[in-house]
Amino acid sequence: MISVTELRNGSKVEMDGGLWECLEYSHLKMGRGGAKVVTKFKNMETNAIVERTFNASEKLKDIFIDYRKMQYLFNDGELYTFMDSETYEQPHLTKEQIGDGTEYLKENMEVTVDYYQGRPLKVTLPNIVELTITQTDPGIKGDTVSGGSKPAVLETGANVNVPLFIDPGETIRVDTRTGEYLGRA
């Protein structure tokens, strides 16, 4: 059991029959009343987000998550197939389990898969990936870094805004958490 005062961003707990990850928390001390903890949780299975307020004395069930390094193999249209580097086990995950990261998945990419009681829950991509631009307007002489931006399509199908001087065929670095262009690779 874990006290609600020990919650931090990324803490994983079991409550209301589901598995939840803490996204935000804050401690409130009322004048004469007891302290309260205001939290925002994300359901690890359905991606639903809820806000909850707890008394400081309440406890939640802490869960153990097994983090496994895996390699992304392929997508058959509905399911994404990964391979455990140690056991060669090949779990299949849905787009909902991966989330928005599907647009940055590239074959043979190393990812982390969260397991709870032997079943895969969630995929965590590297924070920064290097991808090649397949389609964008060509750069024009005189376009500078401080200029505007233009849309570009990456090899995985993701759309990213890039500076005007970037040409098709170039490899760029992209932040998978925000989808922002970080620079040339």
Describe the structure.
By secondary structure, this protein is mainly β. The chain folds into three domains: 2-62, Roll (SH3 type barrels); 66-124, Beta Barrel (OB fold (Dihydrolipoamide Acetyltransferase, E2P)), CATH 2.40.50; 128-184, Nucleic acid-binding proteins (OB fold (Dihydrolipoamide Acetyltransferase, E2P)), CATH 2.40.50. It contains one helix and 16 strands. Strands 1-6-2-3-4-5 form a six-stranded antiparallel beta sheet, with no helix packed on it. The radius of gyration is 21 Å and the shape is flat.
Task: List descriptors.
single chain; SH3 type barrels; 3 domains; OB fold (Dihydrolipoamide Acetyltransferase, E2P); mainly beta; 6-stranded antiparallel beta sheet; 185 residues
Task: Give the topology.
Blueprint: E1 2-3, E2 12-15, E3 18-29, E4 35-43, E5 49-55, E6 59-62, E7 66-75, E8 79-84, E9 92-94, H1 95-98, E10 110-116, E11 119-124, E12 128-135, E13 149-154, E14 159-163, E15 171-175, E16 181-184
Antiparallel strand pairs: 1-6, 2-3, 2-6, 3-4, 4-5, 7-8, 7-10, 8-9, 10-11, 12-13, 12-15, 13-14, 15-16
Largest sheet: 6 strands, antiparallel
Query: Helix share of residues?
Result: under 10%
Number of strands: 16
The structural domain count equals 3
Uncertain segments are none
The value of Rg in angstroms is 21 Å
Helix-strand topology string: EEEEEEEEEHEEEEEEE
Q: Could you write a compact summary of the structure shown?
A:
The chain is mainly beta and 185 residues long.
